[in-house]
User: What shape does this take?
Amino acid sequence: MSGPAPDMAPAGVTFPDVPRSELDVLLGQVVERAQEVMGIQGRLRGLLRATQLIGADLGLPVVLRRVVEAATALVGSRYAALGVIGADGHLAEFIHTGMDTEAVAAMGPLPQGKGLLGALIDDVTPIRLPGIGADDRAAGFPPGHPPMESFLGVPIRVRDEVYGNLYLTESIRGAFTEEDEEIAEALAAAAGAAIHNARLYDIAQARHLWLEASAAITHRLLTPLVGDPADGGEAAGGAGWDPLRFIARRSHAILDADMVTIIQPDTGRAMAGAAGDPDLRVAVAVGADEAALLGQHVAAEATLSGHVFSTGTPMRVNSARDAGLESILSERFDVGAVMVVPLTGSHGVNGVLTAARVTRRAAFTVDDLDMAARFAHQASVAMELSDARADHARLVMADERERIAADLHDHVIQRLFATGLSLQSLSAALGPNVTLIGRAGRAGDTAISRIAGSIRELDDTISQIRTTIFGLHVSPLSRGTVRARLMQVVTDITPGLGATPGLRFAGLLDGLADDVAEDLVAVLRESLSNVARHAGAHSTQVEITADSTSLTLTVTDDGVGVPETGRRSGLANMCHRAERLGGSLTITPGRPSGTGLVWTVRI
Assistant: This one.
């Protein structure tokens, strides 16, 4: 029995031509859909990896850059950018990719958020266009800008706040699809969460820096002899360390401000009582044009600083003019965001700290204002505590000086007086004809003359001790007294004299009229300066005596005397001061050498 022909199919199985073509189409569609699913799956995996990459770093600049790079790869575009919306509604930052540095520099300033970019700021809904030029909202491109057709823009939200926008142009597939828009929106959502985390991290870091700055200034103020050198090479707690400048420098760094100033009351003008003059001045300036700002006067009214100084309430504004107030910084550079916080102590506002950024930079946040205000308050309290400790130390020193002065007066001087009286009694008992014999005696040297010389030396010693007592009474709490000013003159000129002059006071000087005291200080300075410059003296004595009607200054030295020639303007000035007060100036040669100056006036 022969089998079936080789070219014939088994019985009951047929493959008509038409159904076979439909099956091929179905299979092709299945394969196409499978490829689409695989493509979508690949893009989803890419989105997942991008989300992980974006959230892997907490530094905000790094996060923003990774968002832009991830958008370019996921959506498939040649160019991408992320625009951060500033407080003024325009773009404060513009992070972009796809163009080299030379091309960007050739195009000039970065976009400010106008045209199509501004449309996305005004209406926070995605915009997808096949061609930019065909849209009425497009503002065109600057010279040198590469051609761009397809456009996709989606907003980036951080909770309920629109942080910025993600822009993509020039799709590698010719035009952006609805799927591209969904991918971009998903990426923007992930970016919003990452940006929020980065912000929280920045706030935590800033809070740490503020706490560190508070601890540093408190440590340096309350333990001034211990600590590392402050910023700028200033010795911690030493004479070169300025706590206000330390506050300004730290605030400038932590706030990333372009300028920081500290404004305080101008006590000199306030004491002068000049009506209408500003009563605030810039005590410290750090940043742009700081040298020109330092010492500038600030009106207490209609200014941000004056408002905060009077109210004690911190302020932050996007522009001083928007707040109806002026800022001294606006006269120096293009000021945008401004923040002002009071330096509040236990007795009120001691000053205000102002931080400013130039226009188009990000505004200061509520957290910036809160942390800066806390730091300023703590720093101000620390400064008050430091001043209180210094006042306490001065009081303790003044008490100690009073105790030493009392001991010198009650014990040392009284014993010297008793010794002098004993010598006077001995002199009276010996009689005038008793002479000294032995090695200590000299021809014609009597016992009475030697005793009289000893008594004079005791008087001189008592006089010097009294001067020392007066000096002990001149504490830092009484720096403005006439005695203190006269002693300061002697201290200032002593290095030029080579030896400390003897200084004696007699009578009350602190009740002198202001003009008499000014002339007395000036004449003493001039006379000692003349001795230092011209006399070549080894010893100088100063005696100042005051009674109810007159004041006399006597300066004697053992130098070369007054030269015959030379400038006499100094002597003429002293003579003029004496005549103006109804007195006189007398210059006499000393014996055996030197010069004696006597300046006498009526009081």
